[in-house]
């Protein structure tokens, strides 16, 4: 994986970069749509490409349970299986093991858990996570880690962080696929000394990129930003920096300001299916009765397919009638908004005016622009 920083903003930590995988060139900062089960829900690969996506995220836990990573491998790997010729990042499965499994038990060797699908029992070790991700054939794999929720006691957070480092070393030893990058994940909850110690140890092991995990898991927005402001600039400048699972538009803007290169979140796609649509001034709930005869698009001036062809009134009708087209059109708009937001930040960094762009972003959202 080749990564280069091609521009810095003079007034902030924002940076404009680019990395190349065997499947695509990815311009950063970048938002990665989430394709949990080998699909970004309701959209085709061609629609994703038309929206500007060049990298998406797949889920190790879900694809391991169904249809099975070895089956995906026999069918040509994840790219061939889902008909996507761009880049793919797969998470380690750690977050889902702790958040979705009916029962889980953490051991030094790995995590024993009960499937949320059929109740079957499984164990994922660091070596297992690597084997699954190598079978899937993603361009970027993530180390298996323990994702702590909040609140968490300091002593447990320390034990968990140290175990995550030991697991990261085992992942590095087990990872043998040369066409797949491997990222380490910095843990430590809201405790800065633990985060810093984790990062130091991960850098000693050596990875192709570094991520901040276990944020937006129950802590306050202020606590999340404190961790981000402290840790993001300390991640190695020569490698991609990834903020995992954090994704309001404001979170993306602040992450970019602090030098983060990569983001993912289910928010634009999940909220689309729940009728929440993003705009430059905030969000709207399309089910509200005030849109029943509204002939305007979701956002006047938006160039997405949905806004160019359909009114709020029609979208409300589809959503209230639970028509499948509602989820498709809403998802197209929300991903267009997110990907266009990232494109705007990339351009502003190139022009050396990111801070000016950021002030305009907040002014529009407050109604003062």
TrEMBL record:
It catalyses: 7-aminomethyl-7-carbaguanine + guanosine(34) in tRNA = 7-aminomethyl-7-carbaguanosine(34) in tRNA + guanine. Gene3D superfamilies: Queuine tRNA-ribosyltransferase-like (3.20.20.105). One of its GO terms (biological process) is tRNA queuosine(34) biosynthetic process. The active site is at residues 91, 264. GO terms for cellular component: cytosol. Transmembrane segments: none annotated. Pfam families: TGT. Residues 245-251, 269-273 are annotated as: RNA binding. Keywords: Glycosyltransferase, Metal-binding, Queuosine biosynthesis, Transferase, tRNA processing, Zinc. Binds 1 zinc ion per subunit. Its cofactor is Zn(2+). Pathway: tRNA modification; tRNA-queuosine biosynthesis. Its EC number is 2.4.2.29. GO terms for molecular function: metal ion binding; tRNA-guanosine(34) queuine transglycosylase activity. Substrate binds at residues 91-95, 145, 187. Zn(2+) binds at residues 302, 304, 307, 333. Residues 12-364 form the tRNA-guanine(15) transglycosylase-like domain. Catalyzes the base-exchange of a guanine (G) residue with the queuine precursor 7-aminomethyl-7-deazaguanine (PreQ1) at position 34 (anticodon wobble position) in tRNAs with GU(N) anticodons (tRNA-Asp, -Asn, -His and -Tyr). Catalysis occurs through a double-displacement mechanism. The nucleophile active site attacks the C1' of nucleotide 34 to detach the guanine base from the RNA, forming a covalent enzyme-RNA intermediate. The proton acceptor active site deprotonates the incoming PreQ1, allowing a nucleophilic attack on the C1' of the ribose to form the product. Homodimer. Within each dimer, one monomer is responsible for RNA recognition and catalysis, while the other monomer binds to the replacement base PreQ1. Belongs to the queuine tRNA-ribosyltransferase family. This is Queuine tRNA-ribosyltransferase. It comes from Desulforhabdus amnigena.
């Amino acid at each position: 994986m080749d990564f280069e920083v091609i521009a810095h903003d003079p007034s902030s930590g924002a940076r404009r970069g680019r990395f190349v995988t065997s499947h695509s060139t990815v311009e950063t900062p970048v938002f990665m749509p989430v394709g949990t089960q080998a699909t970004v829900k309701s959209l085709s690969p061609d629609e994703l490409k038309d929206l500007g996506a060049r990298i998406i995220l797949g889920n190790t836990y879900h694809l391991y349970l169904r249809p099975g990573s070895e089956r995906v491998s026999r069918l040509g790997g994840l790219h061939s299986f889902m008909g996507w010729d761009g880049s793919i990042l797969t998470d380690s499965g750690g977050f889902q093991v702790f958040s979705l499994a009916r029962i889980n038990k953490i051991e030094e060797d790995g995590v024993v858990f009960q499937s949320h699908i059929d109740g079957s029992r499984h164990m994922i070790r660091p070596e297992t996570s690597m084997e699954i991700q190598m079978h899937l054939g993603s361009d970027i794999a993530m180390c298996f880690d323990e994702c702590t929720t909040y609140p968490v006691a300091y002593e447990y957070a320390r034990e968990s962080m140290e175990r995550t480092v030991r697991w990261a070393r085992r992942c590095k030893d087990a990872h043998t696929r040369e066409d797949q990058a491997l990222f380490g994940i910095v843990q430590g909850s809201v405790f800065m000394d633990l985060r810093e110690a984790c990062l130091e140890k991960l850098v000693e092991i050596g990875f192709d990129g570094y991520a901040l995990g276990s944020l937006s898991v129950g802590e306050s927005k202020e606590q999340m930003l404190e961790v981000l402001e402290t840790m993001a600039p300390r991640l190695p400048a020569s490698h991609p920096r990834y903020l995992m699972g954090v994704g309001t538009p404001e979170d993306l803007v602040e992450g970019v300001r602090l030098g983060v290169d990569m983001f993912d979140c289910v928010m634009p796609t999940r909220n689309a299916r729940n009728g929440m649509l993003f705009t430059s001034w905030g969000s709207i709930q399309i089910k509200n009765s005030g849109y029943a005869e509204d002939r305007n698009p979701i956002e006047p001036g938006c160039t997405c397919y949905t806004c160019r062809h359909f009114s709020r009134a029609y979208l409300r009708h589809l959503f209230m009638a639970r028509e499948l087209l509602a989820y498709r059109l809403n998802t197209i708009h929300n991903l267009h908004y997110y990907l266009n937001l990232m494109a705007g930040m990339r351009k502003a960094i190139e022009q050396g005016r990111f801070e000016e762009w950021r002030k305009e972003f907040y002014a529009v959202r407050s109604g003062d622009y």
